[in-house]
Structures are given as C-alpha cells and as structure tokens.
Design goal:
Radius of gyration: 29 Å
Helix content: 40-55%
Number of strands: 9
Shape: elongated
CATH topology of the largest domain: hpI Integrase, Chain A
Number of helices: 15
Order of helices and strands: EEEHHHEEHHHHHHEEHHEEHHHH
Structural class: alpha+beta
Largest sheet: 3 strands, antiparallel
Distance between the termini: 89 Å
C-alpha cells in the first residue's frame, strides 16, 4: 500500500491522508485540523498495514449493522441455505430472512459496528428477557450476530478490535426424551404402514427428519443397501453414508420392492404424508405425549428424540464415539454427549459389567485397637 502525506482539500482546513490499494486511491478524513494529531493517525494506519491488516479503522467504522446482516445472508445462501426461509414482507412480497432477524433488526437498526459493544449486547439481552424470550433463544439470536462479525473479519471487512466480547446467556439443558427399543416397536406398529420405513430409519440411524425428507432415489445405491446423503441436505454440510444393515436391513428389502415401480431419481424415498398429525394422535393414544385436538397443541415425544435414542443405543452397544458420530452425523463430542443420555439403569449395567470383569477386593477385617 502506497501512502500520500497529509494535505487539505481546497479551502477546507480538515486534514486528509491518502493511500493506494489494489490500484485504487483511498482518501481518509482525519477529522482534525491539527497536523500533529493527523500525522499520528497516518503513522498508526501505516503500522496496521505493516502488521498485515488490510482494513483501516476509518474504513471499518463506516460499516453498519445492515452491512453485517448482508454478509451473513450471503454466507447462509452459499453454505447453509437451510438457515434461510421465505416470508411475505409488509408489501406482500417474498423476502429472505432467518430466525431472530426481526429482533436484531429492531435493536441494532442503523447502528455502526463501532457502537455494537459488549455493553450494547448486554442491553439487548435485558430487553429480550423483559419481552419474555428464554435465555437459550437470546443466545441463538446473538449467536447469529457473532457469526456475522466473524464472517466480516474473514472477508477483511473488519479487524479483531471491532468485534465485541460476546458474553451470551447459558444454553438450555438438553432434552431428555428418548425411547427404549420395546416402546419404539409399539409405536412403530401403531403407525400407518407408509410411515414405518421412515420412523425405522430415523430411530436406528439418528438422522435428522429434515434431511430424511430430502432423500431421493438418486441417493440410494443400486443394490439398495446404502443411502448416501450429500452435504447439501445435512446440517453439518458433510456427505454421509448410511448402510442399510442390521435393524435397517428391512428398509433395504422395502426399497428393493419399491425399486420395481421404477421411481424417478428425483422422487423422495420416504413417505411422510400427514406425519405430524398422525404422530401426535398416536403418541397421545400410547401415552407418549398429550395432544389437544381443540387447540391442536402437542407436548411429549418428538421425532427429533430419535436422535437421542440412536446416540444412546449406540453408546450402550459399545460403539466408539468416533464411529457413532459417523452414523448420527454429529460433528463434535460435546454435541454427541448432549444426545447420548445416561439413565440409572445404564449406570447399573456398567457396574454389573465391571463386577463380572473383576471381583471386588475383600476388605480385611480390622484388628481391634489396643
């Protein structure tokens, strides 16, 4: 980067300095008429560039919250399209957005990034708590803003010193819903036949229901013994192979029969017709949840609890965490551990196995003290 010494524009007394970056001339307003103060700004800018910073504070300070949001939306479109949904704006036209965007827009509207400080983030937390948001919800809202800051840094739009400290509220406790194999078999038999392959796949593979709904015949192997999901439908953005063996072998047989109907490569494999209503009513009937037909509200076992069931079943079966994560698609040990719920019976089983491995040492009888 080449530098031009201090100068003033025409009759103005305010001092400027200029530089060239990638063949373009950039003018920086020092906002001072004092040559010494302006010269210190020039030296500071030179030092920052020599240290590898491509963005000067004077440039970054021009960015606003809306610029960060645009950066985040572009990132979601490229890497995580599932994070974006379409809704109607005030003019009844479709617009793209993400969960929690309205709250961030309302609070940080037209705010420069220099104004988004750690104190300002704490004010946002207090405001959302007064409005009734749970801490876990607030954490996810600010988590998206933090992602926007980090992405802007990766694009050389801002530097570290402009990223505030994000002291976020605690996350929610992990759900504890899971289903034992015996109870799953009862639920499976109570569901309509067209839903059984789907719930069997979810329960034993631990796949997310959103990804399972997007599986097409193009992702099924020729001999129907594997499902290969591409990264674009998985939350972790990584491709995954699910062998249809063991408890999933019956799905392989079902697919073999369905293959004879000559489905199109783009046709969906699993049938989820009327899944939510049937699920709610069936779980209510089996005592796995409560469904109010008047208000159409439901509380109880949900399909996502099958991910916890799968993680727990794999752990109980003695599968290593590394292999288990390949089956369920969890990226980190921390998240997998949140799903692999332990119960008192699990602890008992472990102690019984330890007892079989080695008998407890006999405690020597203590001699009476004299």
């Amino acid at each position: 980067m080449d530098w031009i010494p201090l100068f003033s524009k025409r009759s103005l007394k305010i001092l400027y300095y200029a530089s060239y970056r990638d063949g373009k001339q950039l003018f920086v307003n020092t906002k001072t008429v004092d040559p010494e103060t302006a010269y210190r700004q020039l030296l500071l800018a030179r030092n920052l560039v020599s240290e590898g910073n491509r963005v000067l504070p004077s440039e970054a300070s021009k960015l606003k919250y809306e610029d960060l949001k645009h950066v985040l939306m572009d990132y979601y479109r490229e890497q995580f399209p599932a994070s974006i949904y379409i809704r109607k704006d005030e003019n009844d036209k479709p617009e793209e957005t993400f969960l929690g965007a309205d709250k961030l827009d309302h609070f940080f509207k037209n705010m420069s990034i220099a104004q988004i400080t750690a104190m300002k983030l704490q004010e946002f937390i207090k405001w959302r708590r007064r409005e009734g948001d749970a801490d876990a919800t607030i954490r996810r809202q600010l988590g998206r803003l933090r992602s926007a800051f980090n992405r802007a840094k990766e694009l050389d739009l801002i530097t570290d010193n402009l990223i505030p400290s994000f002291r976020l509220p605690k996350d929610s406790e992990p759900r504890e819903g899971f289903l034992e194999i015996e109870d799953f078999n009862k639920l499976r038999e109570a569901l309509p036949e067209h839903l059984r392959p789907a719930v069997t796949f979810l329960y034993y593979s631990g796949q997310r229901i959103g990804a399972a709904k997007k599986i097409t015949w193009a992702m099924v192997s020729r001999n129907n013994d594997e499902i290969m999901t591409p990264g674009r439908i998985n939350k972790n953005r990584k491709p995954q192979v699910v062998p249809l063996v063991g408890p999933l072998s019956e799905i392989s047989s079902v697919l073999e029969r369905l293959r004879q109907t000559f489905p199109q490569p783009t046709d969906h494999v699993f049938d989820f017709r009327n899944f939510r209503n049937v699920w709610n009513e069936t779980c209510d009937r089996l005592g796995l949840g409560k469904y109010d037909r008047k208000t159409r509200t439901y509380e109880g076992l949900i399909a996502h609890d099958f991910r916890r069931s799968a993680a727990r079943n794999l752990t109980k079966a003695g599968i290593t965490k590394t292999v288990a994560k390949k089956i369920t698609g969890h990226r980190t040990d921390h998240i997998f551990d949140r799903y692999a719920i332990q119960t008192d019976d699990d602890v008992k089983d472990v102690l019984i196995k330890v007892g079989r491995y080695k008998k407890p040492a006999q405690v020597a009888e203590m001699a009476p003290s004299r």
